[in-house]
């Protein structure tokens, strides 16, 4: 199946739905949801950390047999502060419900690099305007 190759935030090691990597790369991997076009090249041999929603955390371990200690569950609707090694700085990521499929999220990244809103796949719902 041909699919997307994900995205890397320019000048950082932060990537979303991007699973082309080598063990020497120190990416921070974020997973928006588990549809096939967003998990191209994700395999059970993956050895990086994956940051995602609680539902996706459970599902990626079950479907892809990713080692549980590599999957980090982040609460939806809350901001989380993480450290990005390549820039030696902290950034925040907020997960927002994408209303696309169970567990699907959008990511708002904020740091030295600016503000980046990654939507992945989402379905508009008027409630989104109530919780910007």
Automatic annotation (TrEMBL):
Single GO molecular function: damaged DNA binding
Superkingdom as given in the UniProt entry: Eukaryota
UniProt record, GO biological process: double-strand break repair via nonhomologous end joining; interstrand cross-link repair; telomere maintenance
Name of the protein: Metallo-beta-lactamase domain-containing protein
Species: Homalodisca liturata
